[in-house]
Amino acid sequence: PRLVFSGIQPTGIPHLGNYFGALVNWVKLQSTAAPADKLFFSIVGWHALTLPQDPKLLSESRTTMVALILASGIDSQRSIIFHQDQVQNHTELAWILSCMTPIGKLKRMTTWKTRLAVSRNANDESEVDDSLLNAGLFTYPILQAADILAYRATHVPVGEDQQQHLELTRDLAETFNRTYPNPTPLFQLPELILTPSKRVLSLRDPSSKMSKSAIDPNSRILLTDSYETIVKRIRSAVTDSIAGITFDPVERPGTSNLLTILSACTGEAPAALAERYAGSNHGTLKKDVVEAVEETLRKPRTEFARLCEDKTFLAQVARDGAEKAQEHSDRTLKQVRKRVGLS
Ligand code: TYM
User: Fold this and answer.
1) pTM value?
2) Which domain of life does the UniProt lineage start with (predicted)?
3) Radius of gyration of the chain (CA)
4) I want to staple 204 with a disulfide (CB 3.0 to 4.6 A). Which of 26, 71, 219, 225 is the partner?
């Protein structure tokens, strides 16, 4: 049987990138799962702490995220939704794994290199100084590996920006298996599952991905945005001045991003869409993207509003989830402690 594991940070309302890159994929996996498969979806509060957070907002986002995951279509009877910070096994395993992780590997992580570059506003990697950045930002991929390995996950659905972290996870699983091989290797190597919309781009700057932290709110569409906001943001999306529509992510990233979004909403392949819109202009395409996004978000938006009224239910879902997650990860940690000689 499969064990699916994924995580999302409780940092505000997810955008279309999180939704199409991750949440929709989670729901798809849930609906195609065999009865014996297990699915774990974690709200990763410890990861969120790598950047400064307002405690009150973080606490709210943490609850809101339970509602958003449910509103996206995850069924708490079928899948396990839980807060990472309620299962101490993650940090314990992260520590053990960090004692097996070469620093050089962490230095090669793109997410770390990007942080370094941003903190110094420099492009030349050799010149940046890491002495003021927090250590959590640096070791964050190890915690992610621990999240996955504590459940001995077999499949991890994520967007493209998390691909390198999964490679590190596989590396660490292999290292652990090699170091402590008896009686049989403990970890199966988890597989990456990417969606077709693995990288949704910023609506204002199609050279970068859509992100929660970009300063311009027009660069993203949030799951809870109103129709009016969707209209405004798609209308102001940066495209190009080439006539007609083609799907060409390299030469026409903005136009292609709109096709990617439309494709994620309708299920029709971007190339097929491009053919249909070949003779149309950007205005026509944008109008249809607006309607498709609205159609896609209407249900989650309504469902989210309804769930937010029922805080008792949300707390119950998180409590049940933590209990099951604890139970499941206890089995792995028991093995890990024994193998390293700490039991
Ligand atoms: P986070 O919270 O940044 O993002 C959650 C998910 O959304 C995907 N994503 C995107 N996909 C397509 N286009 C985009 N523009 C875009 N932006 C974000 C991400 O790839 C991710 O799948 N470190 C992780 C959370 C994590 C995790 C884990 C994931 C912690 N432990 C274990 C899987 C397994 C993160 O910060 O995701």
Assistant:
1) 0.93
2) Eukaryota
3) 21
4) 219
- Give the Cα separation of 76 and 320 in Å (integer): 9
What is residue 82's three-state secondary structure?
Answer: strand
User: Using CA of residue 228, residue 230, residue 236, residue 242, what is the dihedral sign?
Assistant: negative
Question: At which residue do the structure tokens 């139970």 appear?
Answer: 327
Q: Which CATH number does the domain housing residue 171 bear?
A: 3.40.50.620
Using most ligand atoms within 8 A of CB, pick from 44, 155, 207 the residue to mutate for ligand 1.
Answer: 44
Testing ligand 1's pocket by substitution, the residue of 161, 193, 221 carrying the most ligand atoms inside 8 A of its CB is: 161
- Based on DSSP, count helices (H) and strands (E) in the chain, helices before strands: 14, 5
Q: Is the C-beta atom of 50 inside 6 A of ligand 1?
A: no
Q: How far apart are CA 315 and CA 137, in angstroms?
A: 29
Q: Is 147 in the pocket of ligand 1 (CB under 6 A)?
A: yes
Atom of ligand 1 nearest to the CA of 160: 20
Q: Specify whether 149 is located in the same domain as 194.
A: yes
Same domain, 136 and 189: yes
Residues 82 and 152 in one domain: yes
